[in-house]
């Protein structure tokens, strides 16, 4: 503000000094004042005084124009005003008075005249002159008085463009500026990847600043140029040096000349210096908007007469050769908008209105013209834009002088787009309203108008680039390719050398020798690394090769079979872990495929694969797999010790787990496995081991089952029997081993039960069955005893007979499968015992309800989510099963509140009873108090505090009569239609945001919210706390705030929709009480409630409908004056004829500002 005051004082003092020395310089009739054609102005009309500064004999860029604005442009002002009245933008009660003064583009005198117009005339708005340097100075003066200033003509200076409107807060401008012209040029160069370019500026206007000066300043402020030159006279000796510098530094050249004749002369110099090749691109900015209004102007290379800079030289063709390489960068405006609004003959009407109201300019003063200026449409749109800003301001603060004279307010409301004569006008925050285009000449002839090729504009700060024509047309004269900023051979042409090899022969030979050396070294290194890897593999193979001579067989007698008796003997001593271990060890000492050995002093389990597998030589991949298995080291994987290849049979050696398999432990009925912590720990360890396998080179287990999950002496679960598929394929798969396989695996197997590859999804299915065994503490499938005995018979002599009998049995059983499946569906209390063949067949068959084991949890405190996880894991479709990572994640969520480490669990139990008992008591007490507090808060939100306190004490709440209260009802207008346009979740979010806003307003008043049902809102004042006769005032103030809050309330998903309320108020007696035992509610009863509801239903959108009783209370018992309008007598449903009123506002909010 201080800078503005200093500038103004300086200019005004200069003006006063000039006035004292030379007497008034303006003619006696230089100030004119006119209003509308009416002879008198009605008393109820508002007259806005508009001051105009008209350039007299002005020289814009050195071109004399006598009274140009008043003569050929000012007639657009009354045309725009009439259109504003016709469109309803301004009411007919708003009138205008004009007063103007001639000035000669002098900053000091223009400041003085403007100050005189503000002081004496009382100007409410200023239309600045079209001179280049005057508007910025007037902008400071207008800002000082906060008077709106309208800019028009060729005022494209960046001084008038401010991103935050801090310099010129009262400016109303729809004319583009040099800042965006320069910014658009930079974006254009970046679009074509022109990183190096030059600028040539020509200006010789003396003290008058040309458009190229402003463009030069804006380009300097935004980029660093490769080269820039300033020319005052093209015929000077500096021109040759500038051309040489251009040839050496740039091919993309921006030419900005204030004088078109000088531009033609410079183009001839370019031609003479052979700068007319396709490597050059010349950009010509339209700094004075000449091309913006007339794309058919004569090109610069045409000499019109011998009175030009030189006599006719006949070199138009030479200058045209440069024009073929040029593109025009200009402000985009199309005069087709005139026809869109039926403004044929607009320019003739401008001239006619100049001689009429409100200017009445005589021909002696304005001259005789036939058509208006092209700038008249800019003035038309500027006045129309000013009228729209007035309209928006009047809506907010009413029609008064403080509103239409408030420049900053009008500038803030100068953002609404509209269709003007210059096209679609959009004013951004920095006063940029148009886009810029790149054009060239069609057919490169002077009769051919400019052709728009490319358009660049901004929307909310974002650049938009649009090709208006085929991009190939732009570079048709250059072979259809975009010229580079730097030529391929450089600016001096020395970048391309034909005999590069000869020039750098020594370097080439040295490079070839170096390459040969590097290549030979690389080959040697590769061969060496391969050799080392082979040696390393041989050494690694020694790790997994177990000599048969080092395997010592345990001398333990194996029981003939594991019968039900052995299980009963184990169950009889459930807590004797040593007996369990001994029995398991004996059972594993020797079996059909497993034998207990001692290797290097440690017990190990050896799996026998027979001589057939031994006869097959190991491939490279199989040996690599053995090395991988030998290196596996995970706490939940049983360690693979290696293979024995020098014995009578192929043997796989695994680490020994003293407690046997998970299946043995479950069948033993041990108390340990019935502990939920052990089960959780075992499940976690199985998943961890399976997760390691799925992320290892093996990628899957393939035969996961409870017998493959071993338990060591520390009760850790370790997965075994993974990998070595090429060895397992040599053995016949037993039918009971298929019970844990996934359906997709079973379908791939043939009648001979050939082993197939597993998948990660099949492992998840097998995991589900293992978890089922752990949850049920029993085998997942109920199999007949004869199958157990048959499968447990492992004598070598009876193996062939068993296989043949099994095949015959399968054929017989399949004939009666349908009857057995129907019997299974009818079984509800228990799972029917089946044989293994039948189960495998039903699982393989699938169907809508595939066969799965029954889940009967036998553990206490088992998380129910575990059962859901099991069912998710054994779904029929493999793709729908969760991955092992998701299974682990769900298990962590289930066990987040408890430790699943077995040893920690044992010691934690002791510490819990010894040290944490008192802490648990305090914690429970605190939680109880916290829940009590939450319950009280919830109760207080549902009931009045005194009612809630009575309910807490167990007392009955008697209904209470209140002599006089005010009941408030509100409803959303057309809520059903709005809900139909939105999804249910959007409706819920909308109502939540709206009611949250209303609830915050209720807290500011002595009003109690009773309930909200759908879009209905019920409140009351005067109960449960009596407040005398102030209840009507409280409800009225709250209702007004409700409507005011809707001004800033927006629907996120439907920004064009607005919430409108219909409100009704009524005062009278009422009874309140609590109704019901289940979900009790605090309800109101009485005719007052019904009448208030009728007030709401008979109200209008965004209006407050009150009864006569409420009206009387507001008049008699309020400390402020309310604005109330009588509605008269209205027929109210169920009430007959009632006298009602509209509550419009109060003295505090000024009569209501809601829409």
Automatic annotation (TrEMBL):
Q: Which residues form the signal peptide?
A: 1-22
> What InterPro entries does the annotation carry?
A/G_cyclase, A/G_cyclase_CS, ANF_lig-bd_rcpt, Cyclic_nucleotide_synthase, HNOB_dom_associated, Kinase-like_dom_sf, Nucleotide_cyclase, Peripla_BP_I
Region described as Disordered: 783-835
Which reaction equation describes what this protein catalyses? Answer: GTP = 3',5'-cyclic GMP + diphosphate
Cellular-component GO terms for this entry: plasma membrane
Taking every annotated instance into account, which residue ranges of this chain make up the domain Guanylate cyclase? Answer: 966-1096
For the biological process aspect of GO, one term held by this record is: chemotaxis
**What is the enzyme's class at the highest EC level?**
lyase
Which keywords label this protein?
A: Cell membrane, cGMP biosynthesis, Glycoprotein, Lyase, Membrane, Nucleotide-binding, Receptor, Signal, Transmembrane, Transmembrane helix
Select a single GO molecular function from the record's annotations and give it: guanylate cyclase activity
- EC number of this enzyme: 4.6.1.2
Localization, per the record, is: Cell membrane
Q: What is its main location?
A: membrane
What's the superkingdom here?
Eukaryota
SUPFAM superfamilies reported for this sequence: Nucleotide cyclase (SSF55073), Periplasmic binding protein-like I (SSF53822), Protein kinase-like (PK-like) (SSF56112)
Q: Where does the record place the Protein kinase domain?
A: 513-908
Q: Could you tell me which Gene3D superfamilies the record lists for this protein? A: 3.40.50.2300, Nucleotide cyclase, Transferase(Phosphotransferase) domain 1
Q: Where is the composition biased (Acidic residues)?
A: 784-797
Q: Where are the transmembrane segments?
A: 507-530
Topology term for the membrane = Single-pass type I membrane protein
Q: What's this protein's family per the entry?
A: Belongs to the adenylyl cyclase class-4/guanylyl cyclase family.
Quote the protein name from its UniProt record.
Guanylate cyclase
